[in-house]
Amino acid sequence: MLAFGIHEFFEGIAFGMLKETNVAVQLAAGILIHKTCASISIGAGFAKTGMTMTRILIYIGLFSLSTPIGIIIGLKLVSLSALLQVIFFTLSAGTFVY
Question: How confident is the model at residue 98 (pLDDT cuts 50, 70, 90)?
């Protein structure tokens, strides 16, 4: 769960740092499809373990917040140095590849 959260967080950072609208729209579509499938899979996995519905919803809710938090941070990073942008894009790309 932690690995998924970190992946989604960096995905959000990459999205928040985008400057071109057409690229952002494409990435947003990918994020929506990916996040929907991941949430269903994670929820089903938790349900198989016998977790309560309340606990599952809490975990899925926290997972769902990871991308918007990353987007907010990405929007703030755009105004920083080019080196920091490259570092965060590289970390984001690494989580996509992994």
Answer: low
Please give the biggest Cα pair distance in the chain.
47
Distance, in Å, from the CA atom of 33 to the CA atom of 48, rounded to the nearest integer, reads: 23
- Model pTM above 0.85: no
Task: Show the CA angle centred on residue 75, arms to residues 71 and 80, nearest 5°.
Answer: 135
Contact between 7 and 95 under an 8 Å Cβ cutoff? The reply is: yes
Q: Are 12 and 68 in contact (CB under 8 A)?
A: yes
pLDDT in tens, 45-70: 988 998 899 998 898 888 889 999 99
Task: Report how far residue 35's alpha carbon sits from residue 1's, in angstroms, rounded to the nearest whole number.
Answer: 13
Q: How far apart are CA 46 and CA 52, in angstroms?
A: 9
Virtual torsion, Cα 20, 76, 60, 5, nearest 10 deg = 90
Residue 17 identity: M
